[in-house]
Structure formats: structure tokens, C-alpha cells
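ok trying again, last paste got cut off:
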Amino acid sequence: MSRFYVTTPIFYVNDAPHVGHAYTALNADAMARWHRLLGSDVWFLTGTDEHGLKVARSAEENGRTPLEQADVNSARFREAWELLNVSNNDFIRTTEPRHHQAVQALLTAAKDNGWIRKGTYEGWYCVGCEAYYDDEDLDDGNCRVHQRPAEHMVEDNWFFALSEFEEPLRQWYEDNPNAVAPDGYRNEALGIINGGLRDVSISRSSIDWGVPVPWDQDHVFYVWYDALINYATAVGYDADSERFARWWPACTHVIGKDILRFHCVYWPAMLLAAGVTDLPDVRVHGFLLLGGEKMSKSGNVTAISPAEMVDEFGVDGFRYSILRDNPFGPDSEFSYENLLTRYNGDLANAYGNLLQRVITVVGKKCDGLGPAPQPNSPLAAVAAASVADATQAWSQTRAALALEATWRLVRETNEYLQANEPWKMEPGAAVNAVMGDAVEALRIATILASPAIPTAAAEAWRRLGLSGTVDQQRVPDDVAWGQYPGGIALVAGEPLFPRIKAG
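nice, full thing came through this time. structure:
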């Protein structure tokens, strides 16, 4: 059995989750669900990043200890992902003992291999990014991400010899051209490497909120070099070598483009320094924008809570719309109007209406029993093309294209019914042929749609009277035309996706 280990970034606990975070989590969730449909053994990790100066300052502003602040906001992320039906197997917190153990072990291995050395850091630091920057990385002294002044710092630190990994990283990307996708982000990672790498500070002595450096009691590890290791912690690094060997070669990180440098340059170099030669794949998406600006709690744009959108569109309505309208890779604009249009058009009018129409006509013309499909149905070729296109798109982490391919089958089936008008036919072979085709097309579309709308797909599966559950189906076998046996009672119900009027 193939394995698929997928991760989100661990989200920073200085504030509450917003729909930008949800976009990353839902893309990873859809990938995990798709790979389960393929029959893969899947492990899906998310969690929270809880150390560093930003958390310490945020806690102080709120009259809390750093751990109290982390507890409050980590719970918010856990609750948000539960609300959105995110199917993670594990939720990691960087304050957990298992993580401290893994961080100390991996960075000690890098030190023992000669890649971590003592030095003095002098330069610029952005608290919002928890990142060090050179003069050329700033705009008039301001961080380009947060548009706020960076702080000048001088501090004795432990340094990672990143500069000595230029050629190993360059060779890795040459040997593994699909390691970072889409291609533009691979080119960006190579651009950073080819532009020359400098050694980086990985510890702080001016704060104590972090993982202690085991060989220097006056230092804690700087947040990024603690946080990145969570991916290894969760699958047993230094704790269960057999489990780590089982999962690590199958690892895929889903991230936003603002943390590309850390995941595509620093992290693989750290792994190589510790003697881990199997490096993860990285899938990178752009920013979710509001009014042309990045959505961020720490920026100038007021972020939107996922719960607000769920209250309006339901869980699956929000899941589908955000995946369908925001292609993975480039920046994209998030808006209420887009969600409303997509919800009413694709979910209420197309998919939900198709399910209602099929069950109603079968009830009136076929004694409530879904007929078997025609082997030579004109919808068979449409379904095969949708399956092929959706499969290819999911394999490329392109949820929007996969859903477009799936809804092509939904639209064609609605048009097929409209052209044949089975509601005007007399009971018999002709109406049975049309409705059997429609039920089969709907069955296939429901499987293909399930990574995006798992709850609605499960309910549609039940109403179609099908055995098992939709998430137990397998691609490609169960999406081949002709699997619906016929003679099964369909179950009526309220509309899956009631139309929403613009507010």
C-alpha cells in the first residue's frame, strides 16, 4: 500500500484563525481525503507553533503567561478545524515534550556533524515574521510582509552553517524537479540558493520562551528552527525509528508562499545536516487577498473568521467555494460575493438540484427504485473524462481544476435530463434508461466531490441507497461507469444546499 504523509504549517498562536489559515488547511484536507480514495495509507498533521518573541509579547499584552496564551489560541485552531471537518490524524503543539525531545535530538545531530557553531549576530529582526533580515530584504527599514520597522539586534547566538549547503540543495532540486510545485515556486527556491546563502542564527539568549539548547543553558532555539522540526516529531523522529522510516519518505508539506524560504531552503538543509537524506515535497500556494491585500491578523487587513462563513454557507458550502474559487498556486481574491455566486450556482442549482430532481423523478416514474445505467450511455464518456481530469488535477494539488472537472459531469447530467425530459415520459424502458444513467453519473460525481464536500457527499450517498460509505469507495475502480446495480430504493429529503439570498 502506498503512503501519503501530508502536513499544514503549524499555525502561530499570537492570534485566532482566519480564512487564510483555513484555505491552507482545507487544501491539505482535500489532498488527504483524495489519497484515502486512492487507497493510500494516509497520515495528516496540523497543529500550532507556540514559541518565540511574538507569542511572549502577545501574552504580555493580554495579561497571560506565554503558555496560557498558547493554550487559548491553540484551542481556537483545534476548534476551527473541527468545525470545518478537517480530517487530521494528529494535532501537534510545539510545547509538547515529544517535540522538545525531537528538536534537541535533530539539532544536536547537526551540531555533532559540525554544522552548528557559536557566533555573534548583528542585524535586523521582524517580530511579526519571527525572521532575521539583511538590509536589502527591507524597504526603508520596514519588513516587506508586515510594513513595520524591523528591530536592530546584536546577540551571541548559535549559528547553522547554511552557506555550506548551497551545492547539496542545488543538486537535490536538479535530481528532484517535482519536489517543489508549482514550478514558479521551485524557481524561487533555486533563486534564493543561487543568490548565495549565509549562515543563520538558530538560537536566542534574550528570551527564555522556547526549546532549551541542550548544550548551552543560556539559549533557546529560535522559533523557526524549533517549528520546522514538528513534521519529523509527529512521525517518531528520535522516538520511534521504525515509524519514522515508514512515513518520512512520503512527506508533503502544504504551505503559503510567505514561508517558502524556510521550508524549501532552511528545512531541507537542516535535515541534511542531521543526516536525514530523504527530503519532503513542498506544495506552495499564494496569498488569499481581501481588497487586493494579504489577509493577516498582524497586517492592515481585517481577517475573516471561518465561523462567520460557516454560519452563512454551512461547512461544505464554505469548503467547496474556497477550494473552487481560489486556484492553488497564485494569489487570489476572497469575497463574500464570490462565495455566494459559487454556492448558489454549483451547489444549490447544479449538484443539489440534480440530486433532488433524480430522486423525485425516480419516485414518480420508477416506483422509487433507481434503474441500472446503460453501458453505452452518452454520459459514460463524459464521466470517464471527468474522472481522468479530476484524477490528474488532484495529483497536481489543483483542487479548483479537480472540482471543475467534477462539476462538468454534474452540468452535463442536468443537461441530459433537460434534453430528455423524463418527467414527461410514461413509466417503462425509456425513462428507466435515462434515470439509470443519471443515477450513475450522480454516484460518480459524488465520489469525486467528496474531498471537498464530505458531509454532503455522505448524505447524497445515503439518499441514493448505496451500500457502504462514500469514503470507502476507491479510485479508479469505483468511479468506472456501470457500477450502480439498479433496483435500489432512493430516499427523499430536504435540499442539500438551500439557495441563499444575497444579504
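cool. Residues 163 and 197 are 5 Å apart (CA to CA). The mean pLDDT is 94.
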